Known about the structure:
By secondary structure, the chain is of the alpha+beta class. It has one domain (19-116). Helix content is 33%, strand content 35%. It is built from three helices and six strands, in the order H-E-E-H-E-E-E-H-E. The strands form two sheets. The protein has a three-stranded antiparallel sheet, with helices on one face. It starts with a helix and ends with a strand. 38% of the residues are buried. The model is unreliable at 1-19 (pLDDT under 50).
Amino acid sequence: MKKNLWWIVSLFFILPMTAQGAGAIAVDDEVGETEPGYGYVTGAESRDKAGQDALKQCRENGNEHCKVVARFDECGAYVASKKYYGVGWGSSKEAAVSMATEKCGTHNCRVVVAECE
């Protein structure tokens, strides 16, 4: 009995942990005077499903030009100014925001959404 328990415990530490779900961020980033509209989803069964649901949420929030800008398994972020944006992902909100901010460059982007699965 102890030998079987040892194998079960060993497998717990050897096998990779699977993600609990996926997330996505969709935005309407048309250049203009208004802040970008967006939708985001976490906990979806797949990245594709997360993207579909984020796009739907973005459109339901009254946005016409929505597109999926990030799909992620852990954390995702979208930063924007009125003319520029950046997206990022990573193992923490900080990592995702850092990547997104770097991609936006020196255009005074602010965090619009940063979420973790």
